[in-house]
Amino acid sequence: MTKILIAAPLAAALVAKGYETLTPVQDAVLAEGVSGRDLLVSAQTGSGKTVAFGMAIADELLRGADKLLYADTPMALCIAPTRELALQVARELDWLYANTGAKIATCVGGMDYRTEKRALERGAHIVVGTPGRLRDHIERRSLDLSGLRACVLDEADEMLDLGFREDLEFILEKAPEDRRTLMFSATVPKAIAELAKNFQTNALRLQTAGDAKQHVDIEYRALNVSARDREHAIFNLLRFYEARTAIVFCKTRVAVNHLLARMGNRGFQVVALSGELSQQERTHALQALRDGRARVCIATDVAARGIDLPGLDLVIHADLPSNSETLLHRSGRTGRAGSKGVSALIVTQPEFRKAQRLLQGAKVVAEWAKAPSAEEVSAKDDMRLLEHPCLVQPVGEDADIAAIILERFGPEQAAAAFVRLWREGRSAPEELQDVSSSAAPAPRERAEFGDSVWYSISVGRAGRAEARWLLPKICDAGDITKNEIGAIRVQEEQTFVQIGKAVASKFGDGLDLEEGVTMLRLAGEPTMDRPERSPGKSFSKGAPRAPREDRPAYRDDKPAYKEAPARTARPTYRDEKPAFKDAPARAARAERSEKPAYTPKPSRFVDEDAPSSPPRKAYDPSQDGVVQSYGARDDAPRKPYAKRDGASKPYAKRDGTAKPYANRDETTAKPYAKKPFVKRAEGAEPFASRDGADKKPRWVGADKAAPKSVGFKSHGGAADRPARSAGFKTHGAEGRPAGGKYEGKPAGAKPYVKAAGPKSKPAATDTSKRFTPPRKAK
């Protein structure tokens, strides 16, 4: 490895990492005359671009020193399109600049903003991030680019495709103009060239990917499958190669999730990478692939951009890429650093032509074959079983248990159990439908027609004759099949048809196919030379154009129009319309029948729980409100009216028996009647009985009545009775007089004061309590 233009700390790191030679892109950025210039580098994925631009910016960072001092502002800025690629670049630069003491900070979406801000405040020599998060830090003034010496745009074409153009322009405008700008891109489209023109100064274009050397370590295979066997072919591919790490590319997130579920059900150790995952989920997925906990990664094109997976041996294109560049980007995940890899395209019958165009555009040659069948996968498993290292390792400590197994079960049973255990940990291969293995269906070869007779038909191209129109007419006219008809050559004025000699007798010398179209037999083969083309206009590029003739001057006086023939007079308008012709009289209409009474249709929705309506009453004409006419009475005899002079009412009893509503003067008073007044006797107490007997009054006074609480424990009661309050007027106990009426304070008693005395006012010097100055007397 050449160390002439490599800084000493970086050269030591490369040697420690095991680098012996540099890749073409690394040699190109270290070539003589490149140092200090802006670069536009076109290099394929997996060519060592990260280490290349890490060595390229070393001169701007170190400036001849071996160690980097504290930096207030970043010296270098690396921009990547995705979070995974940014973190991968940071890891690569970390070991490359380990001997220089460089501090590397990352600013990517999905990470904690405060942690990134603290890392920038502590000082970072190199900042690696994504466009959106870097712009966010710049706008919040946590990232200062005033001291920037070098700026690197990795996968610049991908950043423009993802819509980061505005963010990139914002970041580059904030950087100093004297910085060094390096752009690395797999392709250099027009947008990249325009960006380089605006933000680079006299950039040097480096093309390091030769057409003949692209992906020489990758074996391309195009596998023909039926549309229904696409997923089964992917399963068999993974089982056939048993790669340490494999990646399957899909176009959409929906396809990624679907394939993830299918492969998980079949026992594959699989993870997914798509745009809908959080940063933590993506990090865990990549770490599982690096640790070996997962062996298959299903990803979209954007999510897998720039990801470096160690030991990636197999790339499967479950969905064909949209263009040749994407095909190279996908396949570039494998075959790195001199290792071999396989890139397999799953091609269905309608996708043959598209796959051919992709391979031709990428300038790679693929082997067309069928997908591995179930038998081929099983044979590959048996071969791996026989080559397993455990079969050739010394027995060692397992000799005792091995001897017991052989003694108890025998060698044949032990070997069969070993094979079954080997196959239990692997999913069974899938049966595939047999399809053609060629890149496209082979053209059908037409056999020689044999002896034939030519006929001419009296209609040609001028009469819009076509073979598909003539063929059924010829078959019907001669009662033959289309296999007995050879070539049909449509000419300008006629058409020549080749008929098999064995059936030519059915047509004779000629016949009519339809009215105006005749078919005649020819003596030999007709001449079907194309008519010569009329000579076209001669055009010589760059020949001077003949001068145009002067146009006539504009004339305002236009010629008068030719006199038109006079209009004939219109017929006068007649208001009276001609009478209609006599029409036959109409037959008389039949009389309309009486319409039935309206009956509402029953509802389609019947509520079974609703109460039924009561039945209607029968019609009663007397309830119609018709006023009855009062006419003269009939002459029937009636009871004469007699006046009652002082006689009792007709509703009273005439036998004198008392009724509740009758006069009670002569009857006994009822209990609920008003009692008569009886004068109280002299000296009798109030509320005494009417018979004069003594009766206890309702209230006899406090001195005669016993208290209500008599009988309780505190009032002379038994010891087990509860206590009641004592000392009140009605609760006087033995030996304690009842409370009397309040008569005021005794003479000479002090006024009421609290037991603790009045509260003292705080002093002004006491700062432990809030001081309130005393109010002034008014």
Describe the structure.
The chain has helices at residues 8-17, 24-29, 49-56, 58-62, 83-96, 113-122, 131-139, 156-161, 165-174, 190-199, 230-241, 253-265, 279-291, 324-331, 352-362, 374-386, 399-424, 467-478, and strands at residues 39-42, 76-79, 104-107, 126-129, 150-154, 180-185, 204-207, 218-224, 245-249, 270-273, 296-299, 312-317, 341-347, 367-370, 452-457, 485-490, 495-500, 510-514, 517-521. With 778 residues, it is α/β, with parallel strands linked by helices. Among the domains are: 8-209, P-loop containing nucleotide triphosphate hydrolases (Rossmann fold, 3-Layer(aba) Sandwich); 213-386, Rossmann fold (3-Layer(aba) Sandwich); 452-521, RRM (RNA recognition motif) domain (Alpha-Beta Plaits, 2-Layer Sandwich), CATH 3.30.70. β12 (312-317), α14 and β13 form a beta-alpha-beta unit. α7 (131-139) packs across α9 (165-174) and α14 crosses α15.
How would you sum up the major sheet?
Answer: 7 strands, parallel
Name given to the CATH architecture of the domain at 8-209: 3-Layer(aba) Sandwich
Q: Write down the overall mean pLDDT.
A: 78
Instruction: Give the percentage of residues in beta strands.
Output: 5-15%
What shape does the CA trace take? extended
Roughly what percent helix? 25-40%
Uncertain regions spanning at least 5 consecutive residues: none
CATH topology annotation of the domain at 8-209: Rossmann fold
